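Can anyone check this?
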Amino acid sequence: MNILEMNVLVLAYLGDTIYEDYVRKHLILSGIGNVKDLQIASISYVSAKAQAKFLMNMMEASFFTEEELHIIMRARNYKSNAHPKNCDIMTYKYATGLEALIGALELSEKKERIAEIMSVILEGKTLC
């Protein structure tokens, strides 16, 4: 099966779990030892608004390859009217684009690239 042609919502479904796993590990390793505090801290990473912001910053810095942008744009342009109550549809679609990219990279076994993306997000690495 060609990963580039898979349903982007399926890719995002997988990408969401990987993204959250990275965030949870990062927060736990940062020393947060209380579940309630972990949940509160995770919002700044896992909300659709945060994901969309991270994605747009990386796009503006030309961080992604053409193939990666293709996946992001397919997810962003996917016809769906569903979105969380706390954000607009475009914010949700950009967040879905980030999750779809991570899912596609996982299925392509490009774990180093996922780690690079998550390092930028979690550690605030400067983009050149």
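Reply from J.R.: I decoded it. The two ends are 35 Å apart (CA to CA).
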